[in-house]
Amino acid sequence: MATDPDCIFCQIIAGELPSTRIDEDERTVAFMDINPASWGHVLVVPRAHSVDLHGIGVEDLAACSAMAQRVAGRQAEVLGADGINLLNSTGAAAWQTVFHFHVHVIPRYQDDPERDPLTLPWVPAPGDPARIAAAADALRCGDPT
Predict the structure, then answer these.
(1) Phi-psi region of 87 (alpha: psi -120 to 50; beta: other; left: phi over 0)
(2) Would you say residue 17 has pLDDT above 80?
(3) What pLDDT does 78 receive?
(4) Domain count, the chain
(5) Which of 1, 6, 12, 49 could form a disulfide with 19 if both were Cys (CB 3.0 to 4.6 A apart)?
(6) What is the CATH number of the domain that holds 96?
(7) pLDDT of residue 144
(8) What's the domain range around 129?
């Protein structure tokens, strides 16, 4: 399994740095975020080092998704979360600060700013249809029919 000795998350996985683990399996580890966006914010990481979404193997990505789903279920059931945000940042421009793939599992509590001070990071507004179509054309794979 690939590891990076300079990676904080690899050090946490190896037990070299402290963490508050809540779950783990053969491919993933879930632990509490020490800089939580809301009460009960958890990080899910693959045991194998992958810098970001572009580098993670499909099996580890699937395992992280499954673990995130289990954690989200417990956040709703045990903590009473009204909703859950899953967040992955890939690259510094997307606010990635630890370069080991991870998923934030962020419980949301409606009308409870003490447990959930997080606000929407952008103001949704209608986009330019021509720009949306141009991006879709660039991203489209093969013949859609």
Answers:
(1) beta
(2) yes
(3) 98
(4) 1
(5) 12
(6) 3.30.428.10
(7) 54
(8) 8-139
Tokens linked to 72: 């989200």
Full-prediction pTM beyond 0.85? yes
Question: For the segment 25-63, what is each residue's pLDDT rounded down to a tens digit?
Answer: 999 999 999 999 999 999 999 999 999 999 999 999 999
Inside any domain, residue 144 = no
- CA–CA distance, 14 with 8 (Å, rounded to integer): 10
Spatial separation of the C-alpha atoms in residues 28 and 102, rounded to whole Å:
10
- A 10 A CB-CB count for 44 gives 28
Which residues in 8-42 are b (16+ Cβ under 10 Å) and which e? Answer: ebbbbbeeeeebeebeeeebbbbbebeebbbbbbb
Which of 7, 13, 90 is CA-nearest to residue 44?
A: 13
Tokens of 62: 């699937």
Q: pLDDT tens across 86-134, in order?
A: 999 999 999 999 999 999 999 999 999 999 999 888 888 999 999 999 9
Residue 104 known to be catalytic: no
**Among 41, 49, 100, 102, the one annotated catalytic:** 102
